[in-house]
Amino acid sequence: MKNLYGELREYSHSDHYGFHMPGHKRNKNLTGVGLPYEIDITEIEGFDDLHHAKGMLKKAQERAAQVFHGEETHFLINGSTVGILSAILGCTRRGDRILMARNCHKSVYHAVYMNELEPEYVYPLFYKEQELNGQINPKDVQDILDRDRYLFETDPDYIDKEAITENQKDLHGERKKIQAVVITSPTYDGVVSDIEKIAKIVHSYDIPLIVDEAHGAHFGFHTYFPKNANTKGADVVIHSIHKTLPSLTQTALIHMNGNIADREKIRKYLHILQSSSPSYVLMAGIDSCVQWLKSGNMADDFDKYVEMLKETRVQLKKLRHLQILETENFDYSKIVISVKNTKYFGRELYEILLNKYHLQMEMAAGSYVLAMTSVGDTKEGFQRLIRALSEIDNELEEENYSFGNILNEGKNFSQASIEILELEQIDMNDKDEKNLSQASIEILELEQIDMNDKDEKNLSQVSMGILELEQIDMNDKDEKNLSQVSMGILELEQIDMNDKDEKNLSQVSMGILELEQIDMNDKEGKNLSQSPIGLPRLEQIFTCAEMESMDKIDMQEIRVLPWEQCAGRISMEFAYLYPPGIPLIVPGEKISEEVIALLQKYKDMGFEIEGLNYDRKIKTYR
C-alpha cells in the first residue's frame, strides 16, 4: 500500500514543474546540501490539505487512529506542544478552573496563561530513595474533585468564609467548577500513573481527562511496555512520536475519544495554532512511521529491541556504585542512572559520558542521568553504554580501595576531599565548642581528626569510596555515637550537640546532610545543604494572567531582586530546568526559602535556570 512518502517520491520523479511554493522549487543543486527538497511541496492538487483533509491526509490520519487505538487522530507538525495547547483551550473557557499535575510540561502552563485559567495542582508522589517524582495518586485526584464539588454546591456564605476569590465564581456569582484534568504519564523519567483508575474518577464528574503521553508513543506495541492511554479511558491523548518511534523531530499526534471533550473546539484550535503551511516532509515522516507500525516488521523489531533492553538492564544492575533506577510502574525504555552514592553530580557523569565516551545522554538531573532508548537503537549502542558505565564504576572502585588503604594505615591526615563531608575544626574533647561550620553538597572533608588513637577512634571499615565509621567514642558513648557512614556520605545518628532540642543531626542522604531541628539562627556560617525533596509546594497567590496585569497597574510594587532576597515575595517569572521543562516556580506563586535553596543548588551543580530574564535574579511583586 502506497503511503504519503511514496506519493511524494513518485511526484518528485514526474515531469510536473511547480510554479508554487516553496522557493527551492525542488532544486537540490541550488544550495548543494542533502536536504530532501525533492519531496518538499505545498498544498497542491492531489495532495490534500491538513486543515481540511478529505483525501490522502484524511486516510493517513485514520490509519494512525487505528494503530494507536484512538477514535479520532490528527497529525501535529508543531510538536506535542500544539496538541497540549489545543486540548486545554478546547476543553475550557476563559477564566475556568483546571486540575493539573504540578509536574506538567511548561506547555500546559502556557495554555493556562493563554486562557487565563485558574489551576488547582495535584502533586505527584516523590520517591525519596530514587529521588524521582512519582505517579499521580488517583485518591488525590478524587479528593480534590470531591472538595471542588462540595464547595460548588454549598451556599455563598460558606464560599465567602473559605475566601474563594472572585475568579472562582462565574457571571452569576457562583463558584466555578473544575472543567478538565491534565496529567503527564509517563514522566520524563519513565514513571507511569494509573490512567484507567484516574479516568474513571474524572468521568464520574463528567469532565475530560487530558493525558500528556508524549514520552509514551511506544506504549502498546509490546507487552514489555504499558498499554497507551487511549485504551485506558483518556479523552484526549497527545503522543510525541518523534521521541520514541521512528519519525522526524517535531512530529506528534493528538487523539480524541468519547463525547466528553469538545472535539469541535479542539479542532478549531488546531487550525488556529498549527502552521497554515504544514510540512509534507514531516507529515510523510508521520505516515511512514504509522505504516511501519502496521507492518509485520514492527513486531520483530520490537522483540529485538526489548531483548537488548532487558540484557542492558541486567548488566547495569551489576554496577556497584552507580545504580540503575526504576519504580513499580515504570517505562523500561528509560535508563536512569543514579550517581547518588558517588562523588559525582548527575551533570558530571553526563559530561564524562559525552566528552570521554561520546555518548550523548538525554538529560542530566541533580543525582542522575537519563538515557532515552527506542526501537531505533542498536546492539552496539547499548554495549557502548554498558562498557562506559562499567568502566566509570570500576574507576570509582579503584579510588575507594586506594583511599581505604590510606585510612587503614592509621595515618594522620588533614583533608579527605571529593567524596566526603566537610567537618571543620571540630574539637571532639570540648563539648562546648562543637562548631559544625559547613557541610557541602558532595563532600566530607575531615580536618584535625587524630586517627592514631586506636582505643577511642576505631576506624573499622572503608567501602564504596567513603568512610564507614563505627563505634567512635566521642568521649561520651551515650550521647555521641557515630554509628555509620555509607554510600558516599556520613550518616550521623543520635549525635547530641549538647542541645538536643536544636542540634539533632539525624540523617544524611543524597550526598547531602539531611538536617532535622538544627538551629539555623547561628550566624557563624553554619549553612548546611538540604535533603532531596520533590517539587516545591509554593502558595499560589495569583494566576499567571493576573500576575501579568500587575506589571501594568501596580508597578511601584515590582522589584528585580537577587533570589536570596526573594523569599516571601510573589514571582512574576517562570523558573525551570530544560529539559525536562517542569517549572520550579510559576508566576503568581509566593517564593519560599526552600525553592531558593533549590535554585542555588542546581546553579552550583552547573545547570542553567531557564525562564528568568536575569542571572540569579527574579522579577517579583510585593
3D architecture notes:
- With 622 residues, the chain is of the alpha+beta class.
- The chain is built from 15 helices and 31 strands.
- The strands form eleven sheets. It has a seven-stranded mixed β-sheet, with helices on both faces. Strands 10-11-13-12 form a four-stranded antiparallel β-sheet.
- Strand 23 and strand 24 (503-509) form a beta hairpin.
- The longest helix is centred in the middle third of the chain and has 30 residues, at 379-408.
- The termini are far apart.
Shape: globular
Beta percentage is 15-25%
- Oligomeric composition of the shown chains: single chain
Helix content: 25-40%
Largest beta-sheet characterization: 7 strands, mixed
Distance, first to last CA: 64 Å
Low-confidence stretches: 155-173, 402-532
Strand element count = 31
Which key phrases capture this entry?
622 residues; alpha+beta; seven-stranded mixed β-sheet; 31 strands
List strands and helices in order, with pairings:
Blueprint: H1 4-12, H2 56-68, E1 72-76, H3 79-91, E2 97-101, H4 106-114, E3 118-122, E4 126-127, E5 132-133, H5 138-153, H6 156-161, E6 178-184, H7 195-203, E7 209-212, E8 236-239, H8 241-244, E9 252-256, H9 263-273, H10 280-294, H11 296-316, E10 323-325, E11 334-338, H12 346-355, E12 363-364, E13 368-372, H13 379-408, E14 421-423, E15 438-439, E16 444-446, E17 461-463, E18 466-468, E19 472-473, E20 481-482, E21 484-486, E22 489-491, E23 495-496, E24 503-509, E25 512-518, E26 527-528, H14 544-553, E27 558-562, E28 570-571, E29 575-576, E30 583-585, H15 593-604, E31 617-621
Parallel strand pairs: 2-3, 2-6, 6-7, 7-8, 14-16, 15-26
Antiparallel strand pairs: 1-9, 4-5, 8-9, 10-11, 11-13, 12-13, 17-18, 19-20, 21-22, 23-24, 24-25, 27-31, 28-31, 29-30
